[in-house]
Specification:
alpha/beta, 6-stranded antiparallel sheet, globular
Length: about 950
């Protein structure tokens, strides 16, 4: 570590150990620690980093989403983070084209294209997290796009920063001439290699065969056959070059139809042979997606909760499934496809009837069977092992023999639960291995298996990489796949672009046959949350602190690095990591749980952080919060009074006082007051609702957050709004006894104050059980985070042996949507609404209901494409306002693009966070519903 610190730091770069180590990990099974991590903002700054790399003679590697699986995004030189700042999206020609930078995810781009009925061609399974930089650098494809709609086929033009520092816009009218003038040697070299390849009949035949399939092995030398002008050859060579030839600073795609209509079904075959034999007729039937799952996959899938009855009843013995899907632009086109394919489907040799469904929930369950294979196998792997997800492709006629031979290899090398699944119509399959890389015998096993697998795939005329990129893992085998002549072309190509060889060395090309066995990632046993993590990075786009400090993956990998430092006796490094992790890893985590929503192995990194907070909480603090739990009504009332008093005092005075407190007691202890905070709210003990004689239909749990924080200046608050709506609809609700002293427990849980949380649990759940008549009535809460908190409290109590399964919690948004809104006509529509979905509304599954309620009262409802958790997180936004500022920046910018009549969410602290971020007054959606449905005076 000290050697890295001694080197000069590149511009916009960090050499902190915690930054270098958190970027040493990506989704691959390789680990290299960079000397520094740079975060450039412009193409010119990238060019400066090239010069720094060449001046110092150290490698430079680009990284964006960190979801690549083959080792192409790690380095022991300068690591360039292109996700942090390269995030622009510009929709062109009514969605027919889109111009994007490398740091945005596929999902973010498609979200902007949705309203035009368009999408990107590449459709990788990692679309939630993989970025355009990686999609282009790896020539990604996916479930349905095949070779017709991948990056190579759909990229129109790009802006490239070459290792020389030259910036080339391949879409410019004079691009070819400018390339000739600015880079004459490169220009002549590309023309020379084009002619060399075209003049060699064997090379042409091999290229045509290899690139008739999905193929990301080596460089895209098909560019020499497909394009004439050197600038066009350059653009298409950049696709799939994995950051070894230059940096793609911007790319323009031709988009494809979104095909929103679909029918999906799971076809169960008696054998692998029967399934693969059906492929020609199924492809001819026009199916958009055909996903294969082998017998081991089916046994794994049977353990999943949403497995189909037919699959559950199957005694799997060599069976195979194909997940089939028709895709169309309209219902009429979908019906036509179904009818045209009916005879092919009827002729299938199946062990159970095939039914096709267009129901969204049923389709999601079927896809979860397929996508959950990785989740189930990787999540259940032995502690200390590394999960490897491989991908290969063979001509479809060779698929059966390849799969059968792979299964034999799994048995020969004792790889258990190694599932085979993939894109059958493309001959592209994936398989999983769990391996102990810290065990020499296991490493030898892996090496021998790899050699046999390479011989198998190449012997069947396939490619060793279909869509994951060559990376480090297959670099030593490129010569074996392409032969000496094309390999020499690739070597010359690399030298033309990168004469110093410093741009991502060891990736794509390697003459060291053992290089794929170097720098393998070890997985020390640490703790439950950490040990399950496969470091895929799916959690990162959803994390509120991703642009400020750390992501969930990074919080986990630094725990692993701490364990490794401890085991190595590196006390200095361990102390440094612990010091920086306190703020980066613990204090700035919003513990919002959005990482769990995205995580394929169901990790809530917030649980880890809460436990760490609990371990670092003093006995005095635990006792103080226990006291608060015993006197919660008085505590919340006092907090409300304090805010009301502060509201009457000049804001600078109060803010200055809290700054002094933070300086003395710590920023993670004393909240920072600001002038935008509301006055205090009202105590909850005087609530009543509905006609006194009416039988209640629910128990109303008004959140204590309304006592602490009062409503917006011109609002009545969600409590009064909810009760008024119920009264208008003739719906009566009951109020639990002692409500003023009850809380969902989130203030204790989020801070790791376990004693107070347990005390509140023991108070709240029995009270709600009594109020709901033993669970007969649902409990309705008016703050989404508190509804989620009550559900979590119930789950924790049940896990501890409590008898609370009968309780049912419903958010007030859902209750009004399901029981009230039809009874209250809209009298005064809201002209327009900016609607903020929250982390809790997402996890509760009520976002659609929120939007529906908003659309009921307004003709113009906008949910920002860039919405995310606001990270206010109870008091986290008061303790660390910089966290909320970072988390809301992109959503706030989108909201600011126009004005709205009203701004709404479903949680008071989220409203405060968004109000602070946008300068607009956010209110609870139910307040707007109440106002819009007020009876007009006669």
């Amino acid at each position: 570590m000290s050697a890295a610190s001694a080197l000069s730091t590149p511009p916009n770069a960090s050499t902190r150990s915690i930054d270098r180590l958190k970027y040493a990990h990506d989704a691959s099974h390789y680990l290299l620690v960079p000397t520094s991590v740079a975060t450039p903002s412009t193409a010119a700054e990238v060019a400066e980093l090239y010069r720094e790399s060449q001046r110092r003679g150290i490698p430079l590697t680009f990284r964006s989403g960190g979801t690549s699986l083959s080792g192409q995004g790690v380095t022991d030189g300068i690591l360039v983070d292109t996700r942090a700042n390269f995030r622009s999206i510009e929709v062109l020609d009514a969605g027919a084209r889109v111009r994007v930078q490398p740091g945005v995810t596929v999902r973010q781009v498609n979200a902007r294209l949705t309203r035009f009925g368009r999408k990107l061609g590449p459709d990788p399974a990692s679309e939630i997290a993989c970025t355009i930089g990686g999609v282009v650098a790896n020539n990604s494809s996916g479930m349905a796009c095949g070779t017709a709609q991948n990056s190579y086929q759909t990229v129109e033009s790009m802006v490239v920063v070459l290792p020389s520092g030259t910036i080339v816009d391949t879409g410019a009218a004079d691009a070819d001439e400018r390339l000739r003038q600015l880079e004459p040697a490169l220009y002549r070299g590309l023309a020379r290699l084009r002619d060399r390849v075209r003049g060699n009949a064997a090379s042409v035949a091999l290229i045509e065969a290899q690139f008739s399939m999905k193929n990301t092995m080596g460089y895209g030398v098909n560019s020499f056959l497909d394009h004439e002008r050197p600038v066009d050859i350059l653009a298409h060579l950049m696709i799939g070059s994995e950051g070894t030839l230059g940096f793609v600073a911007e790319v323009t795609f031709r988009t494809v139809p979104a095909l929103p209509q679909s029918l999906t079904g799971l076809a169960l075959f008696p054998t692998l042979s029967a399934a693969t034999s059906a492929l020609p007729s199924l492809v001819a039937a026009g199916l958009g997606t055909i996903e294969l799952m082998d017998a081991t996959s089916l046994r794994v899938a049977q353990t999943q909760p949403d497995s189909t009855p037919e699959l559950q009843a199957l005694a799997v013995d060599g069976h195979t499934a194909l997940l089939l899907e028709f895709l169309a632009e309209s219902p009429e086109q979908l019906a036509a496809q179904r009818d045209a394919g009916a005879s092919a489907l009827a002729a299938l040799d199946l062990v159970a009837p095939l039914s096709l469904t267009g129901n969204a929930r049923e389709r999601a369950n079927l896809w979860h069977i397929r996508k959950g294979l990785y989740t189930t196998v990787a999540g259940a792997r032995p502690s200390g092992t590394t999960a490897l997800l491989e991908d290969i492709v063979v001509p479809v006629p060779a698929l059966l023999g390849t799969c059968e031979s792979l299964i034999s290899l799994f048995d020969e090398y004792d790889y258990e639960e190694s599932v085979i699944f993939g894109h059958a119509k493309d001959g592209n399959i994936h398989f999983m291995l769990n391996e102990h890389f810290d065990d020499p015998a296991s490493l030898t096993r892996y090496e021998r298996f790899t050699e046999e697998m390479v011989d198998l795939v190449l012997g069947n005329g396939g490619s060793l990489k279909a869509e994951h990129g060559t990376g480090r893992i297959m670099a030593p085998f490129v010569r074996r796949q392409y032969g000496d002549e094309l390999y020499e072309v690739m070597l010359e190509l690399k030298a033309l672009f990168d004469p110093t060889g410093l741009l991502n060395p060891g990736v794509i090309l390697s003459d060291d046959p053992q290089s794929y066995l170097a720098n393998l990632k070890l997985a020390p046993t640490v703790e439950a949350e950490v040990d399950r993590c496969v470091e895929c990075g799916y959690c990162e786009p959803a994390c509120p602190s991703k642009d400020l400090t750390m992501t969930p993956r990074q919080r986990i990998v630094i725990r692993r690095e701490m364990k490794s430092a401890e085991a190595a006796g590196d006390t200095a490094l361990l102390a440094e990591l612990r010091r920086d992790y306190a703020y980066d890893g613990v204090e700035t985590c919003a513990v919002d749980g959005m990482c769990q929503v995205a995580c394929p192995v169901n990790i809530n990194t917030g649980d880890l952080v809460r436990r760490l907070r609990a371990e670092n909480t003093s006995a005095l603090e635990q006792s103080a919060w226990l006291g608060a739990a015993k006197n919660w009504g008085a505590v919340t009332a006092l907090g409300g009074v304090a805010l009301s008093v502060a509201d009457r005092v000049p804001a600078p005075i109060v803010t200055a006082a809290t700054r002094v407190g933070r300086a003395l007691l710590g920023a993670d202890t004393v909240p920072l007051y600001d002038k935008n905070l509301p006055r205090g709210g009202s105590r909850r003990q005087d609530l009543s609702a509905g006609a006194p004689t009416a039988a209640p239909t629910a128990v109303y749990f008004a959140a204590c957050i309304g006592t602490m924080f009062g409503p917006a200046a011109d609002g009545i608050g969600v409590t009064d709004a909810f009760l008024e709506l119920c009264t208008r609809a003739g719906v009566s609700v009951a109020i639990p006894e002692g409500l003023d002293s009850l809380c969902c427990g989130t203030p204790w849980k989020s801070k790791g104050n376990t004693r107070g949380y347990d005390r509140m649990t023991d108070t709240v759940l029995p009270a709600l059980l009594a109020a709901s008549r033993g669970g007969e009535l649902p409990i309705v809460c008016d703050a989404a985070s508190c509804t989620e908190g009550l559900e979590t409290m119930q789950k924790n109590a049940i896990a501890a042996g409590g008898d609370y399964a009968a309780l049912r919690f419903v958010d007030a948004v859902e209750f009004i949507h399901e029981n009230v809104i039809e009874q209250v006509p809209v009298t005064t529509p809201v002209a327009s609404i900016a609607l903020h979905h929250s982390c809790s509304s997402t996890q509760l599954g009520i976002n659609a209901m929120m939007t529906a309620l908003a659309e009921r009262i307004s003709p113009d409802v906008h949910v920002p494409v860039d919405w995310s958790c606001c990270a206010f997180a109870g008091d986290r936004g008061l303790l660390h306002p910089e966290l909320t500022a970072s988390a809301t920046a992109r959503e706030a910018a989108e909201v600011a693009e126009r004005s709205y009549a009203s701004y709404a969410s479903a949680n008071r602290t989220c409203e405060l966070g968004m109000s602070r971020a946008t300068g607009q007054e956010y209110r609870h959606l139910l307040e707007l519903v109440e106002e819009a449905t007020r009876p007009l005076s006669s």
